[in-house]
Amino acid sequence: MVIIDGLNREELMKQLQQSSIHLNAYAEMLLADERFMISSTRYSLHTVELTARNLGFPDGATTEQMFTKAQQLGLKLCPLELAPYLRMQYIDQPEDMEGEVRHNQAPSGSVTVASEPISEEDTFPKGFYLRHMHGELWLRGYCADDLHSWNANDRFIFVK
């Protein structure tokens, strides 16, 4: 279960900083964008972590294919604001020991928060993923076009 505290944008950014959460430029873009909706009400969500393989895609799939399948299974996409709260609460995420750079692929050990993009532009971040590397917790934004294919072992968070 993830608790969304109903913080305003300034309070949320301060809390991320106080929690020693690192952000990449894409995450900063998403958090600063006026389309990034923040609820002023405190609420909680039950989440589930699945791989593309768990969703029935042993060879991987596009974002649309996976999100459609998840919804057919009764899962929902996460509100975008869930990602920073999940990052602050998921402090025991296993560390990425590989540390390898994988271009145009989700980094090893990362967990992508399944959410609707706030922009259709390919150059604007589509969402967030969580990563733990070099002893530091990261909330990172990512860009991907509609043709991007996720690997079978890529991990995602959905709402139950």
Automatic annotation (TrEMBL):
Tree of life domain: Bacteria
Record organism: Paenibacillus wenxiniae
Any GO MF annotation of the entry: helicase activity
Record-given protein name: Helicase
Keywords: ATP-binding, Helicase, Hydrolase, Nucleotide-binding
